């Protein structure tokens, strides 16, 4: 089926709210590495970069799509990278900083809350909801959306997701920053263990594979 392009802007207010939520831990990590003054300057530059990116962040369904926040978060990552790059921070070092930020972000939530999130993720209820979303993604209503299917468990894992199109890769590629996607993928190995979910994956689209094969247990 040919993708249907629907021109609709994301909410600027929600985008900035997302930005603030992610930049709190980011600023603390950067301050610990480079000093408070450095971190304050980077935060200001990151905001300017992000505001310039907002019109280019794709709308992929809003509240009807559980993954709608992902392009926005990718925009924050890109804005932060560009701000740090201006300060002479190379991509490889940025990747390490991003890992620290992700760990700090997840640790903002108490262990019982994270444990509850993990139980919800592995629940049959959540899987049914995500399956509906996966079926919708197959219709390709939005060119820059994710396309995926739910994979039933086989005894080695409880269930999985196969992404055949990645909205994050599409976004970074369109902004001529495709290499960033590889570093974003690594974050999954920090986020899922933080909620008590074991993730196995043999490859990702960002690495040149045909699909991202997430398996959970």
What do you see in this structure?
With 217 residues, the protein is α+β, with helices and mostly antiparallel strands. It has one domain. Helices cover 56% and strands 9% of the residues. The chain contains nine helices and four strands, in the order H-H-H-H-H-H-E-E-H-H-H-E-E. It has helices at 12-34, 36-53, 69-85, 91-107, 111-121, 124-137, 167-174, 180-186, 188-194, and strands at 147-152, 159-165, 199-200, 212-216. The chain has a four-stranded antiparallel beta sheet with strand order 1-2-4-3. It is globular. The model has no long low-confidence stretch (mean pLDDT 95).
Mean pLDDT: 95
> Which strand order do you get reading across the main beta sheet?
1-2-4-3
One letter per element, helices H and strands E, the order comes to HHHHHHEEHHHEE
Unreliably modeled segments = none
Strand count, sense and closure of the main sheet? 4 strands, antiparallel
Output the radius of gyration: 17 Å
Query: Which strand-content bin applies to the residues?
Result: 5-15%
Alpha-carbon distance between the two ends:
33 Å
Instruction: Give the proportion of residues in helices.
Output: 55-70%
Q: Please provide the count of β strands.
A: 4
Shape: globular
What structural class results from the helix and strand content?
Answer: alpha+beta
Count of the domains: 1
Question: What features would you highlight for this structure?
Answer:
217 residues, alpha+beta, 4-stranded antiparallel sheet, 9 helices, 4 strands, globular
Summed up:
This protein is of the alpha+beta class and 217 residues long. The protein contains 9 helices and 4 strands. Strands 1-2-4-3 form a 4-stranded antiparallel β-sheet.
């Amino acid at each position: 089926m040919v993708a249907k392009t629907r021109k609709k802007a994301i909410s600027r207010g929600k985008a900035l709210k997302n930005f603030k939520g992610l930049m709190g831990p980011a600023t603390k990590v950067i301050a610990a590495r480079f000093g408070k003054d450095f971190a304050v300057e980077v935060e200001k530059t990151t905001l300017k970069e992000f505001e310039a990116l907002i019109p280019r962040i794709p709308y992929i369904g809003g509240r009807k799509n559980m993954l709608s926040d992902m392009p926005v978060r990718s925009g924050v990552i890109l804005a932060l990278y560009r701000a740090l790059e201006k300060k002479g921070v190379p991509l490889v070092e940025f990747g390490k900083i991003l890992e620290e930020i992700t760990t700090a972000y997840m640790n903002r939530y108490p262990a019982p809350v994270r444990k509850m999130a993990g139980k919800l993720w592995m629940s049959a209820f959540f899987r049914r909801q995500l399956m509906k979303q996966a079926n919708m993604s197959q219709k390709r209503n939005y060119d820059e959306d994710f396309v995926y299917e739910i994979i039933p468990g086989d005894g080695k894992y409880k269930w999985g997701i196969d992404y055949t199109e990645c909205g994050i890769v599409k976004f970074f590629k369109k902004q001529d920053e495709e290499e960033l996607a590889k570093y974003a993928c690594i974050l999954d190995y920090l986020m899922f263990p933080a909620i008590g979910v074991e993730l196995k994956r043999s490859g990702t689209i960002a690495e040149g594979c045909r699909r991202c094969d997430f398996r959970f247990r």
